[in-house]
Amino acid sequence: MLQGPNETKNGQIAALGRSVLVKGELTGSEDLTVDGRVEGRIDLPDHTLVIGPNAQIRADIVAKIVTVFGAVTGGVTAREKVEIRQGGSLEGNLACASVHIQDGAQFCGKVEMPKRARKKEGPQAEAAAPAMAAV
C-alpha cells in the first residue's frame, strides 16, 4: 500500500501551508508539517515535526523528532533526534539524543546531548562503555 506525502502508517499528518501565520502556542497530538510561519512555541513532545522549505519559524520547539528544511530561530528540544537538511537553517540551542546536519545546511548554536542511562555492572562496564562526543 502506497502512502501519500501527508500520510503515515497511523494516518494523516497535520499540515500548515505556506500562507499560514501562527502567533502563540501551537500544540498537538499528531505529527505536523509546517510550511508557513510560526512565532511563539511549538509543543509536540510525542510527535514528529517537519519544518518545510518555505517555513520561517521564530519559536521554541519541543518534539520527539524535528526535521528542518526551512529556517528556524529558537531553542529546539527533541527527545530522539534533530535533522537539519540541505538548504535548512537553525539558529539556537539544541537538546537532543542525536543530531544530523547535512552538507549545505546551516547551524549556529550549542548542542547538548544527555548521557544515556547505563546499567551499573561493576567497574568493567564503565570502561567498556563508548565515550560520548559533543558536536
Question: Could you list some keywords that capture this structure?
Answer:
single chain, 135 residues, mainly beta, eleven-stranded parallel beta sheet, two-stranded antiparallel sheet, globular
Secondary structure topology:
Layout: E1 7-8, E2 11-12, E3 14-16, E4 21-27, E5 32-34, E6 37-51, E7 56-68, E8 71-73, E9 76-84, E10 89-91, E11 94-101, E12 106-108, E13 111-112, H1 123-128
Parallel strand pairs: 3-5, 4-6, 5-6, 6-7, 7-8, 7-9, 8-10, 9-11, 10-12, 11-13
Antiparallel strand pairs: 1-2
Please give a structural write-up.
The protein is mainly beta and 135 residues long. It is built from one helix and 13 strands; from the N terminus they run βββββββββββββα. The strands form two sheets. Strands 3, 4, 5, 6, 7, 8, 9, 10, 11, 12 and 13 form an eleven-stranded parallel beta sheet that branches. Strands 1-2 form a two-stranded antiparallel sheet. A hairpin with a 2-residue loop joins β1 (7-8) and β2 (11-12). It is globular, with a radius of gyration of 17 Å.
